[in-house]
Design goal:
The chain is 77% helix and 0% strand. The protein has 8 helices and no strands. It is globular and about 45 Å long.
């Protein structure tokens, strides 16, 4: 359990750093379309959901085999937490900006860190859950679906508010 807790804390730090830096990857890469698939290409809420989703997905793929053997539910718990944290971004953003009638940059940044904390707290709490393990196929499917949607909507966004630049 100590190894798993340490690995999840390291994942939180990785996601916080990678997610923060990935906000700038697209510009730093001279707008490379491949980089845009995993990092925001504009300031829309949808694109900012990638700040949580992409590093959590990468961290889940880096799961050491011995930890997966120790806790078979760990990867699905992390991916479920990643989906929850990804959804927390628009929920928290639209809730507070709807109440205030505007958005505030430091609150937007705080939302990213809160969403990241939600992800890893969820993973910690569910990493021994038999129910999460039983639902792993659905969690993997949803993760792949969202990855495909991020790829598709990066360059072909629907004309709705989630994809608009606030």
């Amino acid at each position: 359990m100590k190894n798993i807790r340490s690995w999840l804390i390291a994942g939180f730090i990785f996601t916080a750093v990678f997610g923060t830096l990935s906000h700038f990857f697209y510009d730093w890469s001279n707008e490379n379309p491949l980089i845009g698939l995993i990092s925001p290409v504009n300031e829309s809420t949808w694109e900012h959901m990638k700040l949580v989703f992409s590093p959590v997905l990468l961290w889940s793929l880096l799961l050491p085999p011995h930890l997966s053997d120790e806790s078979p539910s760990l990867r699905p718990a992390l991916l479920f937490g990643g989906l929850l944290g990804t959804f927390a971004v628009p929920v928290l953003f639209y809730t507070y900006s709807g109440v205030l009638g505007r958005n505030v940059t430091w609150v937007d940044i705080l939302i990213f860190f809160i969403s990241t904390a939600i992800t890893f707290f969820c993973a910690l709490k569910l990493q021994n859950s038999a129910k999460i393990y039983e639902k792993r196929t659905a969690i993997y499917f949803l993760t792949v679906l969202f990855l495909a949607l991020f790829f598709l909507f990066t360059f072909l966004p629907p004309d709705i508010g989630l994809f608009a630049i606030p």
